[in-house]
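A reminder from the course coordinator: this example appears on the midterm review sheet, so study it carefully.

Given structure:
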């Protein structure tokens, strides 16, 4: 009988959070120019801005911290991390970095060339930024269902569309494609998983054309759990058997350990190609730190070595994915338009369907972010017109992204289902009076349009 679905841990330490008044929050929103990144965290009741670097560590991780040595050449904490990584990824060469974008930088420097292409399901912003600085064109080739926030259930909406990939290779020529990057799970379209079959087939196609494959593995344990529970042939495999198979199809993997590493800081560049490893070492020495610490303190290496193992624990993953599903089911019951199925690290609300009266040029998902904070002190993130809107370089016209969503990211092992009930109730309240909302107007954006969401200011339209 399956009635034991509670958290597979007890709470040993707590951090107080404050409830504030709606009037206070309205004032703070105004002062922040209606940009949620500028709100102080202490003025947030439930923080769902990100699942990155926000995990609660276990008592085993806290005790491992004390074993951390000074992090320089050959420190013993590195060797613990190295063997933990080799165990999960099945790849020999491990270069730590200070966080995911440090690994993205090294990867882009090694794999990308000016004027060429980097293919992927949906590239994450930090790789995209690094590629753009080099002059490489990042290309998203996710399935069409993965680009439509209103599409029906599909178990693997993070998959790369193989026919799009083949067409692209034929059109541009394999010599013009530097790399294929598979992001697991696919953050930008809902934390949607990629199937083992897709990882295998993408890798076979790439290999045929001599194109290296890299996996962005920030949420690899959640992806492995979806493979176990949704893909034929994997239900009796362990999570580690699945992770090792996933990574057997790539040359290199980069990881932001701030997600499925269950730590607050750290990153990894892991490869089976020795010459790539040597190049990564040199880039790390210049930009990150020595080979055996890459910008992390010895204690952080220790906590990550333990956290990676905990993230691959099946009972933990059942709870983790189950908690996201719990929130998704509550919202669905209230007819709130979300991306289905829910992904591994959050629930994504379709801004276009939530506020159909607000056009994309008036930032419907950003308006929802502000409404949710105003009503309940819950902080979420906009992934829509502000974060992904662009100007056409020739005409200067706005180009609006296909996906227009608000992401409610759930931190690992931090909130209880009671917190999630508060979010669901607040959204229900806002949804019932959705017709009364108008859009917002962008009044300031920084010099780089691709990073404008971090510093933009808005005004409410009356
Ligand atoms: N790759 C993916 C898929 C990510 O989601 C992130 C970060 C990174 C790389 C960069 O890693 O932050 O450690 O430098 N995502 C965070 C988020 C910021 O909120 O989704 P980092």
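Designed residues:
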């Amino acid at each position: 009988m399956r009635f034991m679905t509670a958290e597979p841990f007890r709470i040993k330490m707590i951090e107080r959070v404050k409830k504030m008044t709606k009037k206070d929050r309205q004032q703070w929103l105004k002062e922040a120019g209606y940009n949620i990144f500028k709100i102080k965290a202490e003025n947030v009741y439930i923080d769902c801005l990100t699942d990155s670097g926000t995990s609660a560590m276990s008592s085993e991780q806290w005790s491992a911290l004390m074993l951390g040595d000074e992090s320089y050449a050959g420190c013993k904490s590195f060797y613990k991390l190295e063997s933990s990584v080799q165990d999960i990824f099945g790849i020999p060469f491990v270069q730590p970095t200070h966080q995911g974008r440090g690994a993205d930088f090294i990867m882009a420097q090694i794999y990308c060339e000016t004027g060429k292409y980097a293919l992927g399901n949906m590239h994450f912003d930090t790789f995209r930024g690094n590629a753009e600085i080099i002059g490489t064109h990042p290309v998203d080739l996710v399935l069409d269902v993965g680009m439509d926030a209103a599409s029906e259930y599909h178990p693997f909406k993070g998959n790369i569309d193989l026919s799009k990939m083949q067409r692209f290779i034929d059109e541009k020529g394999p010599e013009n494609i530097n790399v294929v990057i598979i992001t697991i799970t696919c953050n930008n379209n809902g934390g949607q998983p990629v199937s083992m079959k897709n990882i295998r087939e993408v890798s076979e196609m790439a290999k045929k054309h001599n194109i290296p494959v890299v996996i962005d593995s920030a949420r690899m344990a959640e992806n492995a759990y979806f493979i176990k529970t949704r893909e034929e042939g994997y239900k009796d495999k362990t999570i580690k058997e699945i992770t090792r198979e996933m990574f057997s199809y790539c040359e290199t993997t980069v990881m932001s350990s701030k997600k499925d590493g269950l730590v607050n800081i750290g990153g990894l560049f892991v490869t089976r190609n020795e010459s790539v490893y040597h190049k990564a070492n040199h880039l790390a020495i210049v930009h990150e730190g020595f080979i055996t610490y890459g910008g992390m303190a010895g204690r952080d290496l220790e906590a990550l070595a333990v956290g990676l193992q905990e993230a691959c624990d099946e009972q933990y993953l059942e709870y983790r994915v189950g908690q996201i599903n719990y929130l998704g089911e509550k919202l669905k019951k209230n007819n709130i338009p979300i991306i289905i199925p829910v992904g591994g690290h959050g629930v994504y609300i379709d801004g276009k369907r939530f506020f159909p009266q607000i056009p994309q040029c008036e930032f419907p998902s950003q308006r929802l972010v502000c409404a949710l904070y105003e009503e309940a002190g819950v902080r979420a993130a906009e992934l829509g017109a502000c974060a992904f809107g662009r100007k056409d370089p020739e005409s200067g016209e706005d180009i609006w992204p296909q996906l227009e969503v608000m992401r409610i990211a759930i931190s690992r092992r931090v909130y209880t289902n009671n917190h999630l009930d508060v979010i669901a109730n607040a959204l229900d309240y806002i949804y019932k009076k959705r017709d009364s909302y108008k859009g917002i107007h962008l009044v300031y954006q920084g010099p780089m349009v691709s990073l404008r969401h971090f510093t933009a200011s808005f005004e409410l339209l009356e």
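The mean pLDDT is 96. The pocket of F0G is lined by residues 50, 52, 99-101, 124, 126, 183, 187, 216, 218, 256, 258, 267 (CB under 6 Å).
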